[in-house]
């Protein structure tokens, strides 16, 4: 089903087009360093609606540094809208303001929104206090969080930067396939 979204959003124009969940810091910033910028990502079921949502964020908030949508479907029938915001202690209130305003366009109430932090798989209800505890709100907090994450990986013996072990059989397959 294709929805046509008109320019100049009105109340309920994005009903059933925006998913009631978003990610915080799952994707890297294109505007600067991740320690300085938070990236929110919203799932939208229409390219036109995604573009309208990008305009909404860019024109509606002077603290939004940039907004963009995925050039194609992220997964079948889902486009992503990215919103870049300066990492600061104001972030939870800025996110709440966005969700309050999105309620008029999407029909999604505040208690229906849920979020993921980073690459995490734990979906949590949006709560300002929890967000303040989970999301690094300053560049220093972000650096500490990343350092602690690296320490946990090291303590667990996980080295994600390590090159995979290549065996002779794999090399033969790669050679036969013309990969190496």
Observed structural traits:
180 residues; Gyrase A, domain 2; 6-stranded mixed sheet; disordered N terminus; 19% strand; 6 strands; 5 helices; alpha+beta
What would you say this structure looks like, in words?
The chain has 180 residues and is an alpha+beta fold. It has one domain: Gyrase A, domain 2, CATH 3.30.1360. It has five helices and six strands, in the order E-E-H-E-E-H-E-E-H-H-H. The chain has helices at residues 47-60, 91-106, 128-134, 139-155, 168-177; strands spanning 18-24, 37-44, 64-69, 79-86, 114-117, 124-125. A six-stranded mixed beta sheet has the order 3-4-2-1-5-6. Strand 5 (114-117) and strand 6 form a beta hairpin. The longest helix has 17 residues, at 139-155.
At the fold tier of CATH, the topology name is Gyrase A, domain 2
Helix and strand composition category? alpha+beta
Alpha carbon gyration radius: 20 Å
Number of strands: 6
Strand content: 15-25%
Q: How would you sum up the global shape?
A: globular
Average of per-residue pLDDT values? 86
What is the architecture at the second tier of CATH?
A: 2-Layer Sandwich
Total separate domains: 1
Top-tier CATH class: Alpha Beta
């Amino acid at each position: 089903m294709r929805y046509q979204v008109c320019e100049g959003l009105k109340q309920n124009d994005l009903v059933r087009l925006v998913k009631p969940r978003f990610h915080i810091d799952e994707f890297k910033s294109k505007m600067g360093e991740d320690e300085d910028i938070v990236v929110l990502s919203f799932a939208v079921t229409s390219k036109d609606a995604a573009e309208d949502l990008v305009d909404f964020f860019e024109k509606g908030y002077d603290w939004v540094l940039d907004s963009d949508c995925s050039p194609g479907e992220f997964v079948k029938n889902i486009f992503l809208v990215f919103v870049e915001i300066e990492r600061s202690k104001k972030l939870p209130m800025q996110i709440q303001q966005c969700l309050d305003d999105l309620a008029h366009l999407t029909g999604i109430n505040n208690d229906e929104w849920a979020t993921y932090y980073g690459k995490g798989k734990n979906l949590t209800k949006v709560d300002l206090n929890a967000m303040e505890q989970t999301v690094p709100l300053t560049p220093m907090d972000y650096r500490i969080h990343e350092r602690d994450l690296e320490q946990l990986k090291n303590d667990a013996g996980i080295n994600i930067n390590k090159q995979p072990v290549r065996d002779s059989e794999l090399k033969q397959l790669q050679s036969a396939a013309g990969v190496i």
